[in-house]
Amino acid sequence: MKAYLKSFNILTDDEIDLFTNKVKPKHLKKGEFFIKEDTTCQEVAFVNSGLFRSYYYSSSGEELTYCFTFSNSFVSAYSSFLSQSKTLENIQALSDVELFSISREEILKLEASSTNWLRLFKFIAEQEYIKMEKRVFILQKETAEKRYEDLLKNQPQFLQLIPLSYLASYLGITQRHLSRIRKSISN
Question: Which of 4, 94, 96, 124 would be a feasible disulfide site paired with 51, CB 3.0-4.6 Å?
Answer without folding.
Answer: 94
